[in-house]
Amino acid sequence: xxxxxxxxxxGIMGSPMSENLIKAGYDVTGFTLExxxxxxxxxxxxxxxxxxxxxxxxxxVIITMVPASPQVEAISYGPDGILENARQGALLIDMSSITPxxxxxxxxxxxxxxxxxxxxxxxxGEAGAIEAVLSIMVGGTQADFDIAKPVxxxxxxxxxxxxxxxxxxxxxxxxxxxxxxxxxxxxxxxVFLEKSGVDLTAALDVLNGGLAGSTVxxxxxxxxxxxxxKPGFRIDLHHKDMGIxxxxxRNVGAALxxxxxxxxxxxxxxxxxxxxLDHSALLRAxxxxxxx
Length: 292
Ligand code: NAD
Hints:
Elements (H helix, E strand, L loop, with lengths): L4 E4 L5 H10 L4 E4 L3 H9 L3 E2 L3 H5 L4 E4 L4 H8 L5 H4 L5 E4 L5 H13 L3 E4 L2 E2 L1 H7 L2 E6 L2 H12 L2 E8 L3 H29 L4 H9 L6 H12 L8 H18 L4 H15 L10 H8 L3
Parallel strand pairs: 1-2, 1-4, 2-3, 4-5, 5-6, 8-9
Antiparallel strand pairs: 7-8
Helix pairs in contact: 1-7, 9-11, 9-12, 9-13, 9-14, 10-11, 12-13
Bound molecules: nicotinamide-adenine-dinucleotide.
């Protein structure tokens, strides 16, 4: 008997991920703020719930995929939230990328009510969500990880228990640091190559075959070539993640000199009204600095 799933947060990631669970045979009841996303869930064979409480009441496993810590707190706490309405023994898997401390606090508050919790943020983007090949970085206990693993297997390919509650978020913060710096390096190379008059398609192809190649370059190549900045992963969300990694690193005394510069460039894009664009729009920041 497969566990019954409740899914809260059906956005760019949550919609395709929940649909992969439906395809794998799970019974999924979902709630999110946009009616069109609820309609999409129902069309895919899931059940649209009228509220968080209704969605989670009978669930064995509750998965949340919302933007940031404030939304995780909003859906978890209070009389209409998950903790008040889930049944004892249910497992709450928060897959949002949030502050590690929020995950630690949530695990404690849920534990007091007999609800198990894992933090399980993901990497791999919208494409990874659709193809069910996400990397999933998990924080929590081995026993809860063992319960979650078959469910997570329907969503991702590389699924690793990183340590106690909050560890998944810490690893995700490192992931976001690496991705932002990598995009920035690619964007600088693109502007340099274009200003030099080199054929960009040829250049990116050959670069990708060598040590400069990366998942970022593979996945974002067309964004760079076509100046297509439809998200994908929004600058607003990457701004949030650069804040998380900057704070977490400061707390442990780790220096992020390059990360700090890239965080400023992400913030500047946001300040110029580009927060809704894909993070490959770091190219725009470099172009502006280069007068391109
Ligand atoms: P999104 O904005 O597309 O979706 C967020 C969803 O959360 C929306 O459908 C919204 O209705 C729902 N939501 C927000 N507040 C809610 C509430 N109070 N009650 C119910 N639903 C609520 O965001 P996304 O791109 O899917 O990202 C979700 C999370 O995944 C973020 O933490 C992000 O950092 C992370 N992430 C995103 C990507 C990506 O490529 N987009 C990749 C990896 C990780």
